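F.,

This is the one I mentioned.
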């Protein structure tokens, strides 16, 4: 569990994602504006550069002096909003012909998830309800977050939420429901808030990321992994 001292987290990040986007855009605009104004360039270029630095590092000396951390505050607020039904919702399902108890136990060991979730690099279990996730981001970057299980019903439901200060703001659940012929309906519901709201969503699509298709592909691979475990008996 991260401990906050004053206005900073353990990495010194104290600027929220929305503020970082605004700072970066404003900094770039100031630098661009200064190119045609020689008398103002000496003032505008350093100011623009400072705003761009604020956006890239997520650190702000003024915030530190004031004990302010918009990264922490924004994270807590966003998760609460998602839990109330805001943000972008994705829902996908697949039927897998394996017992739901078996599917539940495999999924509940979160360190199994990178075996079929293509964007995940690793999941490290930190305790009975908490885990640390590392995923592939756009353009070769990585995103990391801590998640906590909100609710768990054996063989039926796992719901979770990311913790404040994470690179990802999301809440979600996976439900396991029995169907005919011994199969199980596995349904994932995810609600998330991309960085800078819709702007981040647009950026995600530009780099080829589609959360709905990604989850559908992950569930298809989950089905392949679990059904491959069932080996047909040789004919007598």
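My design for it:
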């Amino acid at each position: 569990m991260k401990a906050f001292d004053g206005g900073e987290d353990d990495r010194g990040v104290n600027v929220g994602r929305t503020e970082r986007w605004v700072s970066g855009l404003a900094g770039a605009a100031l630098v661009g504006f200064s190119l045609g104004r020689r008398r103002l360039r000496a003032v505008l270029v350093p100011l623009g550069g400072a705003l761009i630095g604020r956006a890239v590092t997520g650190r702000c000396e003024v915030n530190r002096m004031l004990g302010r951390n918009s990264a922490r505050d924004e994270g807590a607020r966003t998760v609460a909003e998602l839990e109330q039904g805001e943000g972008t919702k994705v829902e996908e399902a697949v039927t897998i012909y394996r017992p739901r108890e078996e599917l539940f136990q495999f999924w509940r060991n979160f360190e199994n998830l990178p075996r079929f979730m293509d964007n995940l690099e690793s999941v490290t279990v930190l305790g009975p309800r908490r885990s640390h996730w590392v995923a592939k981001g756009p353009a070769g970057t990585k995103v990391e977050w801590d998640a906590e299980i909100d609710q768990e019903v054996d063989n039926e439901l796992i719901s979770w939420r990311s913790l404040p200060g994470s690179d990802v703001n999301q809440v979600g659940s996976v439900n396991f429901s029995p169907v005919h012929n011994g199969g199980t309906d596995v349904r994932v519901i995810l609600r998330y808030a991309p960085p800078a709201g819709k702007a981040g969503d647009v950026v995600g699509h530009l780099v080829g990321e589609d959360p709905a298709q990604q989850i559908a592909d992950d569930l298809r691979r989950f089905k392949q992994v679990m059904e491959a475990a069932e080996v047909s008996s040789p004919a007598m």
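The chain is about 40% helix and 25% strand.

Talk soon.
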